[in-house]
Structure formats: C-alpha cells, structure tokens
Amino acid sequence: MHREHRRRLRTLTVVVVGLAGLALLPSLLGGCRESAPPATPTPTRTPPPTPTVTPTSQPTATSSPTATATPTLTPSPTPWPENVNPLTGEVVDDKTRLDRVPVAIKVANTWPQYVRPQAGIASADLIYEHYNEGWYATRWTTVYLGENPERVGSVRSGRIIDLEIPAMYSAVFANSGFSNGVVQLFRDSDLYPDWVVSDSLPETIQPRPFFRDYSRNVPLEHTMFTSPALVREWAETRGISGRQELEGMTFSEEPPAGGASAFNISIPWRGQDTEWRYDDASAQYLRWSDGAPHRDALTGAQLGAANVVVLYVPQWNTDIVEEPHSGALSIRWALWNKDNPYRPAILFRDGERFDGIWNREEREDMLALADEEGNEMPFKVGNTFFEVLPQGDRAIEIAVE
Fold first, then answer.
1. How far is CA 135 from the centre of its chain?
2. Within 13 Å and on the Cβ side, how many CA atoms surround 134?
3. Is 385 helix (H, G, I), strand (E, B) or coil?
4. Which of 8, 79, 263, 394 is the most buried (most CB within 10 A)?
C-alpha cells in the first residue's frame, strides 16, 4: 500500500503552461449580501478558462498521474520538523498530535435545511468542495490531522473524486456508502480494503466508526456522524496507524509578489451560492452560503480559511447511475497532470489573488500550486479550502472584488 510503505521523498514537477482568466451562471438560490471590505467598485468577471485538451477516455480507478509535458521544475522536498503540521504549516504544541494517520470524511452540503450547520468543519486542515451528480449543489471531502473534533458530519456517500483525495494525503476515507457502480471502483482500487470504511463495504465495517444522531427532525440519511478518533480506531484494527510521509505543500507567512486585491469571491454553483469575504481581523476568508454565514455546529463559529483555492479541473459524466430516482450520472474528476496540460488555479490569500496552475504528477503526490514561471506558489500557514470547478461547457463564472 502506497502510504506506509513509501520509501522515497516525492518530487513535484511543475509544468509551465499558459494561464487564462476565470468565470458561469447565476445561482438559483440567491441571498442577501453584507457589505464587503473596500475593494474595486464592481466585481471583475472574465470568461472561465477554456481547456485545450478534453479527456477522451475514463481513467481506471487505480490510474496514477504521470507527467508528459516540458519544461519542468523539480524542487527537492524537505521533510517537515516533527512539530509542524505538513497539511497547514502550523507549529503544534504537542508533536504527538501529528503521529497519526490523516482521516478524510465525506460531509453533506446539500440540502441546507437538513445539513447546515455541519459539525466539525472548522477543525479540518483541508476541505474539497465539488459538484454532486446532476451538476447540482455540492458535497465536501474534509481532511483531518492537526485537530480531532468530537463529531463530524452529517456523513454522506462517497464520489469518484474520493479515489484521489485520500491518496494525496495518505488518509483513511470514511463515508456512508456508494452507488453500485462506484463501490466497484473502490473495491478495485488501492484504497480497498484497509483505507476505506463504508456501510457499502460490510465485510470491513467492524468496528463500526459511525453513529446516528436523531436529535434533529431531518431525514434518516442526514443523521450519520463519525469522528477522526473513531475512524483511526477502525484503521488501527487494519494495521494502519502512526505518522505518514506527507510532503508536497509549501507554506509562507508572506504572500508572493504580484498579487491583485481580492476581498470578495463569489461562486454561483448551480443550486447554491458560495461567497468568501476577506476579514482583516482574522486574516482569513470567511464563508457565506446562500447569503448566510456558514457556521460550525460544534462551536457556532463562522467557517474561515487561510487559503481559498479555485481549481479548474476536467469533469465529465460517466455511465454509472449515481441517483436511480433521477437517473443522474456519476461524475469523473481528472485531478492529475497526465493528458491534462491545462490546469488553471487561483490562490486567494491575505486579501489577494494569485493566478497559476495546479500540479499532481503521481498518485501519491499532494496537489501543489505554481505560478506562470513554474515557481512554487506557497500557501499561507493555516487551513485551505479547495473549490473544484469544472472546465468547458459547465464552467462557472466566478466574481472577484
């Protein structure tokens, strides 16, 4: 298995490609807006990036990204000190908090009246947000290492993108289930059977790391929860535990040069409005969803991120029926470099935007960022929220003020 048995330091190959701008359609669920910090008078909108390469085939579940383009830059990774969280760059008081396997948990974001506020989201080191089947609203994959919230959820079913995210961060993946076609992809992957736990895999469910919370008047599918500690207990029975080799993210307290002001980021997902507003007091972007502050159910605090990263990723329907009632198909996400030289990304940090590209050469590599010259683009020390937007006909026009 790739995580505990890796014996070499990975290198990040940065491919220099052209960049494009950003930007798609108004949301169905608008909301009232609060005033943003002073910035440009009106949002700047540019056409969303147009891919120069379109996927012609669906990669297998265990396919590993492979670099094909040149020129490249291959910096030598340096192991992090034992007391630095490699997913956030933060120094921890007790280094033993990092002597454990990361945990990825699938968290609901649709439907807001049933799932918000979610529990434990403010404690995640990383969160990936992506479209659900039918290209309607979103679901999240949350990744935990430094913090250990008592409850995370509500927990929902995994998607094909979750073949990639746990592999990047050496994480055990917990979710409520899979559709019939997707569960087979996971059975055929290198995550099975020891790195993925789900009710759809009953042969591996013991000890069960999930529990139900019936205290809210919501449908049954929104009552499942877990915690990183419970998932790690499950993983330990499979022989998975301890510190993992986690290298690939670069952090800096100081932002790169050449940024442009970006105090407000609006992302009109179909069926959902997302907004990030820079807050000078916390030096973070704070999240609004459908016009309301997006809060953590455990703390009541508004969700914030030191880094918000917009990733333009090829996405397309598979022939797998994800939702049998509507017939909506599962989506495939090409989160790798191979056959995908056009990889625009925008890093938002410190109230500024930095345009670049995203990179992931090998299956075990973390996703990293580079500028147009091929230089690594450092994350701000702290947590990161990745917005995985489509390219091409389904591209979303974001607005930046």
1. 17
2. 14
3. strand
4. 263
pLDDT score at 349 = 98
Mean per-residue pLDDT for 62-66? 34
- What CA–CA distances, in Å, run from 111 to 19, 104, 273? 35, 21, 13
Q: Which helix (H) or strand (E) segment is 71 a member of?
A: none
For the CA atoms of 366, 367, 368, 370, the dihedral, rounded to the nearest 10 degrees, stands at 150
Tokens representing 323 are: 């939702």
Cα–Cα separations (whole angstroms), residue 139 to 82, 106, 120, 171, 258: 33, 8, 15, 18, 33
Q: Sign of dihedral through CA atoms 249, 255, 259, 262?
A: positive
Q: Distances from the Cα of 155 to the Cαs of 12, 41, 199, 385, in angstroms?
A: 33, 40, 11, 18
Q: Which contiguous run of DSSP H or E holds residue 1?
A: none
End-to-end alpha carbon distance in the chain: 45
Do 321 and 329 touch, CB atoms closer than 8 A?
yes
Residue identified by tokens 């333009």 is 312
Q: How many domains, the chain?
A: 1
Place of tokens 């990639």: 164
* Structural domain of 22: 14-400
Looking at residue 49, what is its pLDDT?
54
Question: 301 in a domain, yes or no?
Answer: yes
Instruction: At 369, give phi and psi (nearest 5°).
Output: -120, 150
- For residue 234 the two structure tokens come to 């499950």
Residue type for position 142: T
- Spatial separation of the C-alpha atoms in residues 381 and 370, rounded to whole Å: 17
Residue 350 has pLDDT above 90, yes or no: yes
Which residues lie below 8 Å from residue 140, measured CB to CB, with a gap of 6+? 106, 107, 108, 109, 118, 121, 127, 128, 129, 130
d(CA 133, CA 327): 9
200: helix, strand or coil: coil
N residues, the chain: 401
Q: Are 325 and 317 in contact (CB under 8 A)?
A: no
The whole-number pLDDT of residue 372 equals 86
Q: Is a pLDDT exceeding 70 seen at residue 15?
A: no
**Is residue 7 in some structural domain?**
no
Neighbouring CB atoms inside 10 A of 169's CB total 27
Beta-carbon contacts of residue 5 (< 8 Å; ≥ 6 apart):
none
In a domain, 395, yes or no: yes
Q: What is the 3-state secondary structure (H, E, C) of 259-303?
A: CEECCEEEEEECCEEEEEEEECCCCEEEEEECCEECEECCCCCEC
Is 284 inside a domain boundary?
Answer: yes
